[in-house]
Every structure is written in structure tokens, then in C-alpha cells.
Design goal:
The chain has about 400 residues and is an alpha/beta fold. It has 14 helices and twelve strands. It has two domains: about 140 residues, Alpha-Beta Complex (Aspartate Aminotransferase, domain 1); about 220 residues, Aspartate Aminotransferase, domain 2 (3-Layer(aba) Sandwich), CATH 3.40.640.10. The strands form two sheets. It has a seven-stranded mixed β-sheet with strand order 2-8-7-6-5-3-4, sandwiched between helices. A five-stranded mixed β-sheet has the order 1-11-12-10-9. α3 packs across α11 and α5 packs across α6. The chain is globular, with a radius of gyration of 21 Å. The termini are far apart.
Amino acid sequence: MQLSKRITGLTGGGSDGWDVYYRAKQMVADGMDVTQLTIGEHDIGTDRSILDAMYQAALAGHTGYSMFNGNKNLRDAVARRVSERTGVKTTPDNVLVTPGGQSALFATHNAACDQGDTALLIDPYYATYTGTIRGAGAVPIAVEARADRLFQPDPADIAAMANGASSLLINSPNNPTGVVYSGETLQGIARVCQAHGLWLISDEVYDTQVWSGDHLTPRALPEMAAQTLVIGSLSKSHAMTGSRLGWVVGPEEAIYHMGTLATHTTYGIPGFIQEAGCFALAQGEAFEAQVAAPFRRRRDLVLGLLAGQTTVRAIPADGAMYIMLDIRTTGLSGEAFANRLLETHQVAVMPGESFGKAAAGHIRVALTVADERLADAIGHLLSLAGDLPRESR
């Protein structure tokens, strides 16, 4: 029997971008000690108080079917959070609860795109973006955010590719680069979306991890609430990656129809997890700052270790739990460098090429291990980079 082109073509016929990660996992399975700096997984785990709330909710009977679009109390909590932090009036009817941000990406592209439509996204992009767009039946077209602009997208580049497109996907704070899009960048993007009638899909799952400046949601820009779909999640803000609890915020009509999609796909999220989500959100900004603090500290640690050498250069990491490093002076691609680092020093990082073309010659380091182990890994990375011939030699 033949499988559908949609399911077999999710990766576009190439790698899914996770080859180094898979190699590192196999090395660990074979008994080797590998420092994993590949994925955005907190090293602290979900806080015990949230797990207790989840457990008590299950014991209280929240184990049956839940509302397919999310229980009212959780949609209320998300709406309050969004209203307070963005200044944009948001009601529960503007909120769809999803099984994590990944499901929200799928739902938003189903809402914004018909079969065969062009869906724009910014390169570098998170590794699942293109496959998610293909899974929704659309055609992903990448707009490069250039390294010489420190990976801030140029609205003019987006406008040049916007004719006939249905949507634009952006992500700030950004994974993989750690870049936070400036107000000027977001205002330019908003103008392009308005001029070309694009749905703007804004992935904001790292909104609590901003180290420099302030987080700005494009939904708060003039006239943009009607054409913006914002993706949020408790995965990064509350170290609840395995709980799979996210949301979409957008216009009521779009949320209503994405709720219908949920009825026919996810069929809702377990009630005891939603109750734990309500508890987590009620802990407030101080709790979220506590979860985020190690990543700010580790970013500063890495920047300090990079000072005084010129072989490896850091892209300004203003947010998120990653730092992107420019290793082009070594003469290796990001993929070749990452594989060499894994083979010779047992340190696993993600090649820039895993996230599109724009970050070729870069690597992404996840700040997700204890400070001492991270410092040791960066030392190995710099040692390898220093041993390789520079372009100027």
C-alpha cells in the first residue's frame, strides 16, 4: 500500500534537522558521557507544587473528557494573563487551549491557509516549522534574516515575497538565534502583513525569557489584533514541557473554527493537566522569573567565556534559552563543526543548518545544563575552534 504524499513529504525529502541530536542520544545509550546542549529542555524539571496540583486534580476526578477547546477556567486564566501583559483586551472566546505550542502551530496554519497556499516563515526557524506547514497542506517559503543584520528580519525582504501568500510565521524571542525582534522590526512586519492581507502567526513561547529590552507582541500594534494569531505555552515559562499545554490567542471567529479542528483532531487535553495549568499561571510573574533565571545567568557565563578570543563570535542573545555562535572563521560548516565537537569532545550542539540556510556556519547552544558542566563544554568548544585553521591563516 502507498502512503500519502503529505505524510511522506513532511521533511521536504531531506533531513529533519535532528541528526546530531540522534547521534548524541545513541552515544549515551552506548554508555558514553555526552553533554547535551541540543534541545530546550529545562534541567530543573516541573516544580513539585505544580505536580502536586496535577495529582490532586486527578484524584478529584478531572480524568474524564474535557472541553475540546479548553476548559473555561484555563481559558479565563490565559485571557487575564494576556490582557494584563499586553494591554490588548482578551476574553476566553479569544483563547484556544492546545496540546502544547506544536499543536498550536498546526492549528493556526490550518486556520490561515488553504491547500497549496504559500506560508511564509523567517529563516532561521525552529526545526519543526516547515514540516508543520506542509502537514497543514501549505507550502513553506522561507525569508532569510541575514547574519549581517544580526538575524533581525528585514520587512522589505518579506514584502518582496508576500504577493499571493496567506500567512507569515515569526518567532520572538527567537529559537534558534536568541534574538528579540525590535519594535521597529515588528512594526515593519505589521505594515507588510496589512498591505498584503497576511495572517501573522506569532510564536511567543519564550515571552518570559527576555534578557534585554521588553517583549512586544505584534497583536498589540495598531489594527493588528484582527489578523494576528499568537502562540503561547507553559512549556518554557513553567518548565512543563512534558505536560503539553499551550494555547492560541486570536480573533473570535478564528478561535471558534480552530476549536472545531480540535474536536476532530486532539479531542481536548486531560482535565487534570488543565487544572495544573491554572495553578501554574496563578503563581505569577515572580515564579516565571525564577524558572527563567538560570538561562540569563548561563548566557552571561558563556559570553564571559567567549571574551578575549575572536574565533567564535556570539550573536546577541537577548532572550530564550539558547545562544547562537558564529564559527565561520574555523572554515567548517555548522554541521561539520557540530559533528567534530561530538566526536572529539562528546559535546552535542545543534548545527545552524538544522534551522534553515541563513544560519549556515553557526551552531546553537542550549543553556540547559548546570553552570559548571556548561562552562566545561564551552571550554571544549573553544579548544576545538582554536585548533582549526582560520580563514586568515
